[in-house]
Amino acid sequence: MSKKNDKKEAQKRLEALQVALVDTQIWTMANGQKVCILLEGRDAAGKDGAIKRLTECLSVRNTHVIALPKPTDFDRGAWWFQRYVNRLPSTGEWVVYNRSWYNRAGVEKVMGFSTPEQQETFIRDVPDFESMIVRSGITLIKLWLDISMKEQKERLDDRRADPRKKLKVSDLDQVAQDRWTDYSAARDDMLRRSHHEHGPWICVATDSKVKARENILRHVLKVLDCPHAGREVAAPDPDIVFSYDEVIEGRKTLEP
Amino acid sequence: MSKKNDKKEAQKRLEALQVALVDTQIWTMANGQKVCILLEGRDAAGKDGAIKRLTECLSVRNTHVIALPKPTDFDRGAWWFQRYVNRLPSTGEWVVYNRSWYNRAGVEKVMGFSTPEQQETFIRDVPDFESMIVRSGITLIKLWLDISMKEQKERLDDRRADPRKKLKVSDLDQVAQDRWTDYSAARDDMLRRSHHEHGPWICVATDSKVKARENILRHVLKVLDCPHAGREVAAPDPDIVFSYDEVIEGRKTLEP
Amino acid sequence: MSKKNDKKEAQKRLEALQVALVDTQIWTMANGQKVCILLEGRDAAGKDGAIKRLTECLSVRNTHVIALPKPTDFDRGAWWFQRYVNRLPSTGEWVVYNRSWYNRAGVEKVMGFSTPEQQETFIRDVPDFESMIVRSGITLIKLWLDISMKEQKERLDDRRADPRKKLKVSDLDQVAQDRWTDYSAARDDMLRRSHHEHGPWICVATDSKVKARENILRHVLKVLDCPHAGREVAAPDPDIVFSYDEVIEGRKTLEP
Amino acid sequence: MSKKNDKKEAQKRLEALQVALVDTQIWTMANGQKVCILLEGRDAAGKDGAIKRLTECLSVRNTHVIALPKPTDFDRGAWWFQRYVNRLPSTGEWVVYNRSWYNRAGVEKVMGFSTPEQQETFIRDVPDFESMIVRSGITLIKLWLDISMKEQKERLDDRRADPRKKLKVSDLDQVAQDRWTDYSAARDDMLRRSHHEHGPWICVATDSKVKARENILRHVLKVLDCPHAGREVAAPDPDIVFSYDEVIEGRKTLEP
Ligand SMILES: Nc1ncnc2c1ncn2[C@@H]1O[C@H](COP(=O)(O)OP(=O)(O)O)[C@@H](O)[C@H]1O
Ligand SMILES: Nc1ncnc2c1ncn2[C@@H]1O[C@H](COP(=O)(O)OP(=O)(O)O)[C@@H](O)[C@H]1O
Ligand SMILES: Nc1ncnc2c1ncn2[C@@H]1O[C@H](COP(=O)(O)OP(=O)(O)O)[C@@H](O)[C@H]1O
Ligand SMILES: Nc1ncnc2c1ncn2[C@@H]1O[C@H](COP(=O)(O)O)[C@@H](O)[C@H]1O
């Protein structure tokens, strides 16, 4: 009985957060504010689910979820950021990237989809790139969804067993566990080198999906800080959502 | 108790349909098939909810939901179909239009957002346009979601009362009821003149959301007809989903 | 001495035509008129040179010359007209296509770059496509530049000998003479099947470059018919510029 | 007689340079090199004419001259660089910008088309932006065409008198002379703050059109440095083409 009640309570809290998001979006649209949220994390870290809750009640005409397929030959020839720049928010829009330009520091690095030089160029340039778009008036929120090896295994196994989730299973999942430590090393390098004043990384512990989603919404509300929305919603739980600063300072740790 | 069971049963049926959709999409991706589904209907007819169920388990990287904002000055100067053409599916993609080029025959006609000449040009050209994209290899599915005046009123009232649905309430909703008969006339004219061999209209009675959604999924499965998917799912209910032919022949009626 | 005088005279006439074009463009920009001119013809038929004279004095910001490279994989997957539609003129713009969607009925047919089904679909659809964009307010001018086998040979030989023209020499030029009759057959089929009320073909005899260029400009002026421009310039020479109707009716012939 | 001979000689030199450019482009296309050339300068400084000579013999399908119209509302809402990024060269392409992102530091500053904050953000960001695209593999050539007040006056007067040049006359020309010193101040500030390692400014004295054009071509050849092209062409004349470094160091001066 209590588990069911928990679920009900969680749903109620989620809905309150979504109300606050709705009011916040109405306010940003009126202000012409541009919002860019990007979610990164290993396979099965919970990006899709978080995005679903985040965007569920938002305006379909002013909210764009961008999940780009692997680069075409044209994209490979172009400036790395080009196809992402093309989709940046204009006045009053929210854009949510389901994986982003950081592919170059994650999957591409571990899988060798680009050259070490390209990866180095990327990581060197990304703070400048983000600072620029932020100075141009975009509110940028960068979320790293951090999952444990064990939880990932369970979710990947679960996906393979669930016929509704077949399209979530990709060839790359196969190696997600085998290359666990490579991905950890890539993550550490990426976070360390791309955490900067205008684009701080926010880490989210995602082993509990419910908590992760709820706290992501709380964090977004906190950043956007609409004067008449979400005043009553709780602040993000510091055990679930924390700045990468705290990892640097040793007060928090990411999955090994 | 039975209502709760009904809900559970409905959810089970929905999930079975989604499994079939997943298998169908895997198959279309392997084939390079291009799928274009467009949903039209009055405010609150259930487009968003149907799209949610339809796309819930599909590939985020190969499925695009397009909900264009009102035309910019540039769009107004361009060929009407231009911004839609820009988003048509390429090989292996599914594109779902949440409202479409038919705006010109619906909201624009009733609200006077374009000239009668532009509207006439549109309705005259649309069968040719659609025939062309179909001959180019796109599978086109056109759905008209038909709601009753009473049900619309309830849903619009409900939206206004629900703070999570504030972003669904638009200025245009205000007149949806007042201009009910104008919208009916526009619908009749639109369906009649744009129902053609390569782009037949499929009507969906949407006063029951659950039935409407379920039957839309069934219809899509039926059209795409993947040899190894959905064999066991039921055919669309002919009282919920029917060709506009049946309306012409007097065997079915749309809301007055 | 007389040859030099001829040249001077020709230059003077060209300049007068360009003045009329300038006035015409100012007028179309003020009117918001959309102009689309496409030039087709065999290699070395004189497309580039004609476009140069046509656009030389036009507004660099409102005139776009489109010379698309061979289709990418993405383009191949998409609707054939898609990448051309993307560049159609908006209000006040002139777009000049240096080769166009007709590639599918010309080089692609002769060289086998697409399937016979794709070619058939194209030629069947193109009148509808063009009628649509014309009804949407675009002024469409379709020019077929007709060169003789002998003159083509000379120009191709000349190109190969001229180091400034190296980039004009393409692999396809090599076969232009060998496949002369295939290209003639493709041309005849193309003109016959795509000459229609809203998109008539205008043929231009281009063995004399000077005459061809001059008469193309005269023709464009005649079609656009600006009330205060070009009143004094001569009408196109009927031996150089003529409607494909005249070929059908046997009063004119194209190169064999 | 000698003037005529001069002209002939100049034409001969120009043609030799164009041959070298052709060979250079063939080589960059084979290498997949990406070339981006931008021309800035006051009205009538000679941008159009230089671009004409530069691109005259280049591949129409791999060379793009970009002359963007004034920003639309959408552009105004977007990141300033966005519409330019969209047109950056991909593999094997040459892109020539006729005016560029530097509008924000020139005409927009003098005419007040954007806010001082936007202008400050731009000038602060532009070195980072350019460094990034250069590190991504683009060869960037930035040319400042410097004209004297007297020569500009003559050219503007000449334009107004020449009916073929009517489309070159813009409302902004009217104030080019009146605001001469404002434009000079904007230029000095722009060059000083955006001259950097990866994007050095090259100044071109343009009071002599013939010399300016010739030397621009020589400079482009020098930068691209194709091993088998232009070996025999002269180096740029240091009185016509010089790095902004020389201005900083007081060895050269720009027009007051
Ligand atoms: N060959 C490749 N080169 C570059 N990127 C790739 C390649 N294959 C896949 N990717 C990218 O890797 C990321 C992860 O892929 P995948 O796990 O299949 O997708 P998802 O994030 O939807 O689960 C995606 O952003 C995808 O675009
Ligand atoms: N001024 C306008 N001109 C043309 N189309 C408009 C205008 N205002 C709204 N629309 C279009 O009308 C349709 C219905 O609008 P609305 O009811 O606000 O959106 P939704 O379908 O998301 O509920 C949308 O496709 C919108 O783009
Ligand atoms: N493999 C191909 N598939 C389809 N079209 C092609 C292919 N190769 C060349 N083309 C097209 O054929 C046309 C003629 O090519 P070419 O003679 O090289 O160009 P140009 O017209 O500039 O002389 C161009 O429009 C080009 O895009
Ligand atoms: N209102 C404006 N806002 C911003 N840029 C402008 C505006 N008007 C003209 N421009 C730009 O100023 C430059 C010079 O304009 P013109 O001299 O008209 O070619 C061009 O790049 C124009 O795009």
From TrEMBL, chains A, B, C, D:
Pfam families: PPK2. Belongs to the polyphosphate kinase 2 (PPK2) family. Class I subfamily. This is Polyphosphate kinase 2, PA0141 family. It comes from Asticcacaulis taihuensis. Keywords: Kinase, Transferase. GO terms for molecular function: polyphosphate kinase activity. Coiled coil: none annotated. Residues 5-226 form the Polyphosphate kinase-2-related domain.
